[in-house]
Amino acid sequence: MRRKYDHAKLSQSACLLEGLCICLMRTGGDFAVIIHSYPDCANVLPRGIPGQLPGRFFCTNLRESDVMAGTTTDRLSECIKLVAEVENPVAIYVFGSCLSELIGDDIESVAAAAAGSLSTPVIAVTSSGLDDTSQKRVIDRHAELMYCAAQNKPDPQPLTVNLIGLAWDDGEIEEILAGAGIGVNVHLNEKSPLSDWCRLPAGALNVVIDKDLYSNLMEKIKKEVGTPFMEVPIPTGVAGTDSFFMKIAGHFKRRSEMKAVIDENRKEAADALSAKAADWKGLKLAYNIGTERNYVPYITAKNGLCEVNSFRELGFDVTLLIQGSPEADRVLFISRLLDEMKITADFDIFVDNVSMTPALRKKAYDLVYCVGAMAEMVSPAKVPMIALGSLLTGYRGCLRNLALIENALADRRE
Amino acid sequence: MSERTEDRLREFRIPMMNHARYFGVFMASHSIPDSILVLHKGTGCKMKGSTHISDLFHESFSQICWTEVSGVDILTDSHAMIEDTVLTNYERRRPGLIALATSSVIELTGFDMRESVELLQPKVGCPLVFVPTSGYEGDMYDGLADFTRALAGFVDWTLEPEPGTVNIFGYPFERYEMDHGANIRELKRLVEAIGLHPGAWFLSGQRAGQLLSAHKGAVNSVLPYFNKYRKELEETSGRPALAGDLPMGIAGTTKWLNNIAAAAGADPDKTGTFIKNETARVRILLDIAKRFLGESTACIIQPTPLAAGCAALALELGMDLKNIVLLDSSLGGADEFLRALSRLTAENSPDDLNILENPSWDKVAGLPEFHEDKNKRLPAIIISPTIEMKKQLIFELNIVELGSPSYYKHMIYPAPCLGYEGTVALTQRIMNAASFRH
């Protein structure tokens, strides 16, 4: 029997419609999205993202009478044609819903028929929330859908990389790669516009921090363009950043060039880190996962655990604080998963948000790394916190991270 | 392209306010700190509530629990899933009430949530408040009113009221920050100043127990958000239910307070003196503001009752009104807006007032106040909740962010918009927005 956590692993399960809408609301571009459902489903759209306009989103706004009369697909067909005619977008994405799934609407056929006479690509996705999925599947489907809109497939440029899923930085990654003679074709993450995703085919190497996060995209690109994918560690901390650059350089046989560039850039961060790691050795850190659905690749990668080593490098004794069911078979599942991932760490499970406070009180934690929105639950436990996703990448980011942690720990001492 | 084609597409555009009944129920549950909301919905439906409330004081997702129903589950035993979730969370949290919601999709499978709730009620020691949340029709204010009505159904109205105690029905308490907190405090101040006592205030951040003691109220003051159930409340409670607009602006606040005073038997002299002193105090401040604002224009984007209140204040401040956007589909629309405005202020509304009823974003973006070209833009103070617009406009427009949702503006200092204090505070915010132009 499939258990709810099998697919989502250590994170929360997700609804493909909701997840894709959140991702696409963050994505700039001249595309349109049609939600095939009743009006309430358009509520999954996040609002208030500066500069992102909901005008690109449409809903077939199904009425109960449409469902009863069997006219739901007529509305979808009409909506697709009107959107294409009035808005003339570069692509139309059509998303199904629990309702369309339950009444058996074949949205892919309807979209294909409607698209027949149009010049706009119409891409339909069966995205019922009843068939719950995982955050990483949503991230992958989003990337795949973005790539699908790329009509031109230019030849890959030698010695260039696509950085996929990494947070944007202050330009250090690009500088260091350039120092070793490697160019960045495009740097993509959850905020990248469609036009950037369409540049993917021109990169010679696709760099990701978790191959499992982009399995659909990988398959499509390999088939259509043939460029390889490489998994690298997230470049946080000094060791992670070293390894990130050296692995990319290794692919292009530029290890010695890269070594020289790295040596110039890493010293300050490495020295500062050594000093702090000595001070912080043995401090207890609670590393929280499974609490938020954010569809941010660098937070979701490696089941949310890709920054564990960065804290260990700083001397912290890391305990995983995992939200979700504490049933015995899940505990076993988590143990096996951590073994598979070669992560040796204690873990503690808490059921829901309000149980985080007692979970933090169980051990005398010195610091918690968790979703910012959990501050209300962390505060009564009097443990200093830094927000999940706030660690910066690269050597310069490492210095900033040390200051961030130091400030948080100073609160504890006060 | 014909205009008709664009008109046909409008049917599929997402309106500026697209929150449906479920969000209203979510908001209502969030406003009762010891409640929990059990969702028998797909996993994505959670986000239809929690992501739309931005509350720095109390995280919006901390009171929900869910069955996370999947396709397989709905073919098996929905009741067992609900029972498990309700009983487990009742034991763990001991809430003052448990609200339950499901989706139209699950109802389409023939599952009867009411029956499930009836079976469960004897097993828990708090009210189970089930509110149907159709995904097809209705807006958040329908959900809010439906929840309030269902909760009021648990009040034992046969118990004796306490003379001079006033209940309020229909306050849209969205968050615990000091915009709503200050509104509640101001209304209490007004009621207490004329010798009456605040009772159960639906909804105001009060705990379930206090709301369920609404029988103590001798008078129910009904704000427009609950007006559709006013008569029913009067009948079921056996107490007068006073219809009233939002107490905004000097005239609107005075009218609201006088109505309550008369119905609840407040001392007329005390009431008269208090109102006289307050209006005199506030009028001095508003006269200063009027001189500062000159003949500024206001563009108001709000649900009908709040739009009418803001418009009334704008007219009291001598401002011009050109465009009003009403963000609801259930509160009466343009006709009700004009009626409310005429009740709230003696000032004449402009003849050329353009009123849009819950339009799509593109229609609002086409208003002259939002013109991308500064030289062609109609300068105006925009009083609206968070609305999406092109990035550049966010920095160029004079916006007073008020109402729901409010993602950008957060309040740690009292910032009411209701009552006499609210009149002054909102005027201050309007002046602040206007000052960007000076």
Describe the 3D structure.
The complex is a heterodimer of chains A (414) and B (438). With 414 residues, chain A is an alpha/beta fold. In chain A, strand 9 (203-208), helix 10 (215-224) and strand 10 (229-231) form a beta-alpha-beta unit. The model of chain A has no long low-confidence stretch (mean pLDDT 92). In chain A, helix 11 (237-251) packs antiparallel against helix 12. Chain A is globular, with a radius of gyration of 23 Å. The relative contact order of chain A is 0.11. Chain A contains 18 helices and 15 strands. Chain A folds into two domains: 4-131, Rossmann fold; 151-414, Nitrogenase MoFe cofactor biosynthesis protein NifE, C-terminal (Rossmann fold, 3-Layer(aba) Sandwich). In chain A, strands 13-12-11-14-15 form a five-stranded parallel beta sheet, with helices on both faces. A four-stranded parallel beta sheet of chain A has the order 3-2-4-5, sandwiched between helices. In chain A, strands 8-7-9-10 form a four-stranded parallel beta sheet. Chain A has helices spanning 4-8, 16-26, 64-69, 72-87, 98-102, 107-115, 135-148, 172-179, 194-197, 215-224, 237-251, 255-280, 297-300, 308-313, 328-340, 356-362, 375-378, 394-413, and strands at residues 13-14, 31-35, 57-59, 91-95, 122-125, 133-134, 157-164, 183-188, 203-208, 229-231, 284-289, 317-323, 346-350, 367-370, 385-387. Chain B is an alpha/beta fold and 438 residues long. Chain B has three domains: 21-152, 3-Layer(aba) Sandwich (Rossmann fold); 165-266, Rossmann fold, CATH 3.40.50.1980; 274-435, Rossmann fold. Chain B contains 18 helices and 13 strands. Chain B has helices at residues 3-10, 21-30, 47-50, 71-75, 78-93, 104-108, 113-120, 140-152, 180-193, 208-212, 230-237, 249-264, 268-293, 304-316, 333-344, 361-365, 391-396, 419-435; strands at 35-40, 64-66, 97-102, 128-130, 165-169, 197-202, 219-222, 241-243, 297-302, 320-326, 354-357, 381-384, 398-401. A five-stranded parallel beta sheet of chain B has the order 11-10-9-12-13. In chain B, strands 2-1-3-4 form a four-stranded parallel beta sheet, with helices on both faces. Chain B has a four-stranded parallel beta sheet with strand order 6-5-7-8, sandwiched between helices. In chain B, strand 1, helix 3 and strand 2 form a beta-alpha-beta unit. The two termini of chain B are 43 Å apart. The mean pLDDT of chain B is 94. Chains A and B meet through strand 1, helix 2, strand 3, helix 4 and helix 5 of A and helix 1, helix 2, helix 6 and helix 16 of B.
